[in-house]
Design brief:
Radius of gyration: 16 Å
Structural class: mainly alpha
Number of strands: 0
Helix content: over 70%
Distance between the termini: 12 Å
Oligomer: single chain
Strand content: under 5%
Length: 134
């Protein structure tokens, strides 16, 4: 099970490091094509979310690799559960404002992607706080 948790941690770290760096390095206007939810959000909040995602990604992989402050790994996973809960809410809230079925479907797909990431992060939090702690 430690191997499975390790693989999930790496997968989550890659996803959130990529998403976080995109939010930190790209202007809001450039993110609109891939992330329609950024329209009503101030740029500082987009950058703050990117920072949280990058820090969580680092928290998932650095403590186990270094053996230092390993409690940060399940805490990072809990933080991602919170972030993904917000992501689901944003996608489902925005779904109603779109006119076309394709746009509404895109928001539902975004909510489903957030839910999958939430479940993976919850599994890591459970495993690393509980029976498979580092």
């Amino acid at each position: 099970m430690n191997l499975v948790l390790g693989i999930i941690q790496i997968l989550l770290a890659v996803v959130f490091l990529g998403a976080g760096l995109a939010k930190l390095t790209q202007p809001k206007e450039k993110l609109r094509d891939r992330m329609g939810w950024v329209d009503p959000v101030p740029p500082t909040q987009v950058k703050a979310l990117g920072t949280v995602e990058v820090l969580a990604a680092l928290g998932l992989v650095l403590p186990p690799l270094t053996g230092i402050a390993t409690v940060l790994t399940p805490l990072a996973a809990v933080g991602l559960v919170i972030v993904m809960t917000g992501g689901i809410l944003v996608h489902l809230r925005d779904r109603k404002k779109y006119d076309s079925a394709a746009e509404r479907r895109r928001e539902v797909q975004g909510a489903i992607a957030c839910a999958v990431l939430l479940i993976l992060a919850a599994v890591v939090a459970w495993g690393r706080f509980g029976p498979y702690s580092l």
